[in-house]
Amino acid sequence: MKKPGYTLIELLVVLSILCVMILLVPTVQKSQFEHYQEELFFSDFENFLKVHQTNALATDQNSFIHFIKPPINRIEFKVAGQDDLTRIITLPPSLELVTNYDLVFKKHTGTPSKAGRIAFRNKKEKIVYKIQPASGRYSVERTPLPY
After folding, report:
1. Under a CB-based contact definition with an 8 Å cutoff, are residues 78 and 62 in contact?
2. Dist. CA 58–CA 37, nearest whole Å
3. Per-position b or e across 103-112, b if 16+ CB within 10 A of its CB
4. pLDDT by residue (tens digit) across 45-58?
């Protein structure tokens, strides 16, 4: 008595489709993880920027922000005389710091020492933070990169 079943060709087709689906999952997860890391970094960066500007406004200390380009690729937030407020954030591997820029928020006013642009780049876009000279407010521009 014959039992119904799959032929060898049908089995190979199903297995090949399954292999392709399994191989696609890690690439999708990797890009989602990179995106999550970048969004988390920008959230931390904006929070530290606001905290250090507010600290300079409220105290008798300047706040310094030092941007270090690759290969180190990190940002240092420091307050003169207050080591407990020093923070260092490292950029995720998928993100690159484009501009070398030092920013100082002046004591009592919280205004930046100079206006400027802080630019980051990932695989898909360029992200630019424009710092306004008088208020220290910033705006964010995201520009897609050409392929």
Report:
1. no
2. 31
3. bbbebeebbb
4. 999 999 989 888 88
Closest CA to 74 of 53, 100, 51, 52: 100
Q: If DSSP codes are grouped into helix, strand and coil, which group holds residue 103?
A: strand
Beta strands 96-97; 87-90: pairing state: unpaired
> What are 5-41's pLDDT values in tens digits?
778 888 899 999 998 888 877 777 778 889 999 999 9
Single-letter amino acid code for the residue at 16:
S
107: nearest Cα among 53, 34, 67? 53
Domain architecture of the chain: domains with CATH:
29-144 (3.55.40.10)
Helices and strands: H and E segment counts in the chain: 1, 8
Cα–Cα distances (Å) from 56 to 10, 15, 109, 130, 139, in that order, read 70, 62, 7, 19, 20
Please answer whether residues 21 and 13 qualify as being in contact, where contact means their C-beta atoms are separated by less than 8 angstroms: no
Tokens standing for 61? 């200390």
